[in-house]
Amino acid sequence: MAQPQNAFESAWLMLTDNFTEFQLASIGSFLIHESVYFLSGIPFLLMEMYNIRKYKIQKKVNTSAAQQKCLKKLMFYHFCVNLPVMMLSYPVFKYMGFTTALPLPSWKTIGGQLFLYFIIEDFIFYWGHRLLHTKLLYKYIHSVHHEYATPFGLTSEYAHPLEILFLGFATIAGPALTGPHLLTLWLWMSVRVLETVEAHCGYEFPWSPSKFFPIYGGADFHDYHHRCLYTKSGNYSSTFTYMDHLFGTDVGYRKLKKAQAEAATKIVVKDNEASTDSDDAVEVVKSN
């Protein structure tokens, strides 16, 4: 067994010495998921509860009854669907080479695997999500998620149990194929949860990731998906938008953004014209 090379590896060794690999892969992963999910999602719920409208994409606010319903069902889904799936997935991960041992993977290895996971997840999620918007599957399965036309962070995982299994496969497919180190798995899970919570948060901030990464979807991109009728929604992508762009399923969204940009330009022009007229009037008064 490799010896720890730093304080972090020493702490990791203490963790693996006190818990079995199965416990860390299942219960440990569940606790990591719940912590990241609720710590990142609850602030957006509080913002909506206290009616903080600045940067909110939609004016509509969910009722307290709708918010409570979401929280109650989430707890049921997490303990009765997510946790069992994590436990049952362990043998597959182990067969593919999953490990908790030292040495920990390098950041280069972790970065490469996370990049691969995003590509795999985006591809599977796009086609799975698009399939869920066909009439039959939407009516009986995906409509549960779309009960919230005005999403807030925690609605990201509010879905029919079959959808949780169906699209959850997109998230675990990459790690299942590569058999990652547990550290990589936990980092992937955390990043993926943060992304989906942000996409459903209902707020577009000046510091939102979509402002800095052009192909990142984010809250505004996914909020449009929730506002539209299921047959015309588009914007099916998960994290990045290139799949929608490639297959033309973001046309409606792009037209809307273009119209908004043109409207904003007209307002600026009118404001400038009004300012110029006012300056001219001041000059006339001065000359007199």
Tell me what the structure shows.
This protein has helices at about 5-20, 20-50, 65-95, 105-130, 135-140, 160-180, 180-200, 220-225, 240-245, 250-285. It is mainly alpha-helical. The protein has 2 domains: about 5-250, no CATH class; about 260-288. Helix 2 packs antiparallel against helix 3 (about 65-95), helix 2 packs parallel to helix 7 (about 180-200) and helix 3 runs parallel beside helix 6 (about 160-180). The protein starts with 6 loop residues before the first helix and ends with a helix. One of its GO terms (cellular component) is endoplasmic reticulum membrane. It is found in: Membrane. Its main location: membrane.
Q: What are its keywords?
A:
288 residues, mainly alpha, 2 domains, 10 helices, globular, C-4 methylsterol oxidase activity, iron ion binding, Sterol_Desaturase_Related, Sterol 4-alpha-methyl-oxidase 2
Poorly predicted runs are: 274-288
Order of helices and strands: HHHHHHHHHH
- Percent of residues in helices comes to 55-70%
- Give the structural class: mainly alpha
Number of domains: 2
Mean pLDDT: 89
Rg over C-alpha atoms, rounded to the nearest angstrom: 23 Å
Instruction: Quote the distance from N terminus to C terminus.
Output: 92 Å
What's the total number of strands?
A: 0
Family: Belongs to the sterol desaturase family.
Transmembrane segments: 22-46, 74-93, 113-132, 164-189
Protein name: Sterol 4-alpha-methyl-oxidase 2
GO biological process, one term: sterol biosynthetic process
